[in-house]
Specification:
- The chain contains 20 helices and four strands.
- By secondary structure, the chain is mainly alpha-helical.
- Helix 8 runs parallel beside helix 20 and helix 15 packs across helix 16.
- It starts with 14 loop residues before the first helix and ends with a helix.
Length: 459
């Protein structure tokens, strides 16, 4: 395929350079956005009298037909083309002749690719947010069924204090709500149109940048032509937001991996979302969550690629920036794949409530409540803390738990104890007493779930 820029050169480009330089194998996915950008540009050129109205209509009509032909498979994208922009323009010229050649008036591939990738990512952000909303809904559904399902809360992966499964899952729902908010913010900053910036210094044609911005659904045109073509902040910002989503998914996945193990057995995955072993017939492996955990590193790598690519580039456009697309496309593909797989996995898993309760009973996670019981009777907290530590050691020695320890054992350590201590260390009472805003008391968790539902609807 002939190069659009071949006039300056006296010999053919080496085939290896062609292959090295080409981006169509990955930027071809933006064909619809490239065509929509070109349609808006052609309509503006015609409206401003830069090309004739008849030429403008012909270009817009044929571009729409090219899009339909690609979508239906009638037109196959030529993978020997340099990029999707050149392929579309050359196909247009093939169909319309000189009329097609007028499309690129007052435009450069620099502002063209900048608008394409913004439009593409704008659509992808909408898709990712929809997947986040589904995930939050799945977490909320499980949580609503487990408002009083007692389990240990952990610090340092050691049993620490009582929580509920609902409270635990709400913590992840809050993370994913923040993720959606980050994407919304990034999308707002991205939603300015670089068309009209040209190669770097605008154009001498009397174009209407506000018109193209409006036609393409942008909030307005970008303010500086140099920045317009050299800005990839939006790629870095979306990659960073995606990386944080993947970190949250990885943390959740790690919990599921642990909870599926025989050592925990808090949950069991549906057979449709687990795999077996080629040699050990008893195995049921949580491969989905392990892969999500692994793919987190991939998304972090994509983000690092974008930051490293941009860190030392002078203004304006540099060919290095072609590397933006593979990285951001992969990050977006990865998070979409992970979200769309983990959500039904969670929705179909079985919660083993009794195993969670048994773990809670064995972990002395009501020790703080025991100490607080003494504090409420007037003992300084540090003295109460020490007395409770002695009691825990005595329980371990006797093979007992605080709920079962005889009252005389309590009184040996501190005479302030009376029979009311058993109410204080009852696990469900420990939970119900944590009624502060954001706490695990069932009444508070129900309020949080309502708020999560309201916020999720706004995503």
């Amino acid at each position: 395929m002939a190069k659009m820029w071949a006039g300056r050169f006296g010999k053919e480009t080496d085939s290896r350079v062609n292959d090295f330089n080409s981006s169509i194998r990955f930027d071809s996915r933006m064909y619809a956005h490239d065509i929509e950008g070109s349609k808006a540009h052609a309509a503006m050129l015609a409206a401003k009298g830069i090309i004739s109205e008849a030429d403008g209509k012909a270009i817009v009509g044929e571009l729409e037909q090219i899009k339909k032909d690609i979508r239906s498979g009638k037109l196959e994208i030529d993978m020997t083309a340099e990029d999707i922009h050149m392929f579309v323009e050359q196909e247009l010229t093939k169909r319309l002749g000189d009329v097609g050649k007028r499309l690129h008036t007052a435009r450069s591939r620099n502002d063209q690719v900048a608008v394409d990738i913004r439009m593409y990512l704008r659509d992808e952000v909408v898709c990712i947010k929809a997947l986040l909303k589904e995930l939050i809904g799945a977490l909320g559904g499980i949580a609503a069924d487990n408002v009083e399902t007692v389990m240990p809360g952990y610090t340092h992966l050691q049993r620490a204090q009582p929580v509920t499964l609902a409270h635990h899952l709400c913590a992840y729902a809050e993370m994913f709500l923040r993720d959606a908010s980050r994407l919304t913010d990034a999308s707002k900053r991205m939603n300015l149109c670089p068309l009209g910036a040209g190669a770097l210094a605008g154009t001498t044609y009397d174009i209407d940048r506000d018109m193209t911005a409006e036609l393409l659904g942008f909030d307005g045109p970008t303010a500086n032509s140099l920045d317009s073509v050299s800005d990839r902040d939006f790629c870095m910002e979306i990659a960073a937001a995606v990386s944080i989503i993947m970190v949250h998914l990885s943390r959740l996945s790690e919990e599921i991996v642990l909870w599926c193990s025989w050592e925990f057995k808090f949950v069991e995955l549906d057979d449709a979302y687990a795999t077996g072993s080629s040699i050990m017939p008893q195995k049921k492996n949580p491969d989905v969550t392990e892969l999500v955990r692994g793919k987190c590193g991939r998304a972090l790598g994509d983000m690092t690629t974008l930051f490293a690519m941009m860190k030392n580039l002078p203004l304006a456009y540099n060919k290095d920036m072609q590397e933006d697309k593979e990285a951001i496309f992969d990050a977006v593909d990865t998070v979409k794949l992970c979200l769309s797989t983990i959500t039904p996995m969670l929705a179909t898993m079985t919660v083993n409530k009794e195993n969670m309760a048994a773990a809670a009973r064995k972990g002395f996670i009501n020790a703080t409540d025991c100490a607080d019981y003494l504090v409420k009777k007037g003992l300084p907290f540090r003295d109460a803390y020490k007395a409770t530590g002695v009691l825990v050691a005595r329980c371990i020695e006797l093979g007992a738990v605080l709920e079962e320890l005889p009252l005389e054992e309590y009184k040996k350590v501190c005479p302030t104890f009376d029979s009311g201590v058993y109410e204080a260390v009852n696990l469900l009472n420990c939970l119900k007493g944590r009624r502060t805003y954001g706490g695990p008391a069932p009444e508070q968790v129900k309020k949080e779930l309502e708020n999560i539902k309201i916020l999720a609807e706004k995503i």
